[in-house]
Amino acid sequence: MVGSGIFFTSGYLIQETNNPWLVLLAWIVGGFLAFCGAITFAYSARLFPFAGGDYVYLKKAYSPILAFVSGWSSLLTNFSACVSVLGLAFGKYCLLLFPSLPFLQFFAFSFLGIQFEFGTVQILGAFPIVFFSAFNYFGIQSAIRVQNFFTILKILGLSLFLILGFSVGSVDWNYIFKFSPPNFLSSEDSLKLILGIVPVSFSYLGWNMITYVAEEVKDPDKNLVRASVTACLLVSFLYVLLNTLFLVSAPMEELSGQAGIGAIAFSKLFGAEVSILPTGFITWVILGSMSAILMGGSRIYVAMARDGVFFPSFAKLHPKFQSPSTAILFQAGISLAFLLVKEIESLLYMITCSILILSCLTAFTPFRFKNLGYQSSYKIPFFPLPPILYIAANLVVVIVLFKEKPVQALWGLAITASAIPIYYSIKQFTNNTSLKIEN
Asked: What stretches of 62-216 show up as alpha helix (H) in DSSP?
């Protein structure tokens, strides 16, 4: 869950809010919503500890077609596009690490308000996608070993950065305190906070990742809830500290809109002569986040194929490695295609719109399961407050997103809605295939 989004989304957050107090509050609110989501989703995960996460819960609670919409959105935005965001960030940080690399642009064009291009950044971003997809192909155990290796070094590095940053770094608290606290009686500040939660939500992605591989988790009754809740609390605390350090490292105008905000903060705190070290570390964190998403996302398509709403080959596991090899390769291909979107910011808003709409439906499943007579030994703390807060907050963010970023929001909605004709097309294909086999 400790992802790389913290090192590039904060630049866009600062640009949207233009107030350090709003920045910190957005991270606190985002962490609280992730916590509410974690303890809510845990109810459904305990009832159905199978591969697929949201897909499984929506199928059981509502209908197969709604579950397919969730799975399709996961394929295109929640996972594949997230991987592409990280790929683009990786490519840009590589150019910072190796400034001698040629910056090439082979083509660029605009389509329905979104900029597309293919060049050096996309080529660099493709390498880790292919690399980690290969590790997943060889089985989840090899992927977990790689992920654990990245995570250990990532946590150690972040902890060291915080300790040294606040103790010996060139911090200036006036960068924060010269700003007045936000006035929430003003609609402008309220809208800024809500819109700021969009990039924050992306950075908190991963709190529900364990539900996607629940079938492969030992003792899910005990470990699913514990892992999700503990991760949310610790990561929220870590993110608020990191953003505080960013904000006291440089003036707001130098951080605003910067995809490389992490590298800028490192350079300001410790000097430009050591900038290569933090840039290399951030690149490492990006790789670790990509590895985690590629590992969890491919398991959804297995669940869809098992239900007959996706191509049957996706349900098959590799005979030797026992990995969903077809799903892994397909997910890698979609991720590579999304690399063509030029701006990270555009992808962030597209992804978040799609995720939040479907997350609201998933957060409502505990109510549905109770009405359907399913019983679980797990009780959501302070029920029904957490799911209600989570759903209400997400709906507000989606409404503001459509108002302030209509092009990106409509792209996200269109990708989600495209699942409906795809669902019936695949169902028709599988039915025809079954009839041919029978005849």
From this structure: 64-73, 80-97, 120-137, 140-168, 174-177, 187-203, 209-212
